[in-house]
Amino acid sequence: MDASLLTQETFKALLLTLYISAPVLISVTVVGLIISLFQALTSIQEQTLPHSFKFFAAVVVILLSANWAGEELYAFFMHIFELIPQL
Fold first, then answer.
1. Domain total for the chain?
2. What predicted TM-score, i.e. pTM, was given to this entire model?
3. Which domain holds residue 14?
């Protein structure tokens, strides 16, 4: 295994991590922005309010994207296991 193959596979792993985490991060960011705007408009100063909505948004997105994320992870690990004989 040479350094270029290791670098390429590491890059693929990091990119896959970004793709899998992006839906959750984007949804939590949007929900946080909406709740913050609502709090600013209504002068509600409750500190725990955004956290509960962000948590529920993250759970819903994880449940909706778990099948896709699992398939992507499975395909990546199968690719990595196919590279083992080249060691």
1. 1
2. 0.81
3. 3-86
